[in-house]
Amino acid sequence: MSIEKEKELIELARLIKNEELREKTIEIIKNIKISNQNFKKYEKYKIDFSKAYGGPSTFHHAYEEGLIDHTLAVVKISIALAKIFEESYGIMINKDYLIAGAILHDIMKIFCYKKEKGKIVSNESMLDHGIWACCELYLRDFPEEVIHIVASHFGPNGANPPQTIEALIVFYADSIDATIESLIRRY
Asked: What are phi and psi of 49, to 5 degrees?
């Protein structure tokens, strides 16, 4: 099942028209790694992206395959919102940046959690997955606009508030999916 979801995510990445950005995004999906030598110690926590948890046990998508379920939903919601806003307001949204940012916003979570005594818990890192992702995207020479989407996916009250329509869309898509999934599990 999870292999099919990863293929679906790659197909969504293929919607990126800019060839260089599309190939970089697909490469990172297929080969998520820590490039900075100072952080190699966290590779022991690496979980296959298609099987990774979306967060610790008290968080949204806290189950095996939760991360890919969440990522797929955020990408699809982002694309749908972009289409609505373009049709309703006649604005142009950079869907290449939007799709890449939505795919990559939680990509480094595969290094952030471990299973301990039946619960999913955070590892000992002092840095958040968003910071890790921004660092990795910077090292891989991603456009600033995509890095901004990832950096601002915590929203207006985060350390780096959204400054583009694409960043706002990904923030709201991320937020609504996390909220709805949490409610679904409760009922």
From this structure: -50, -40
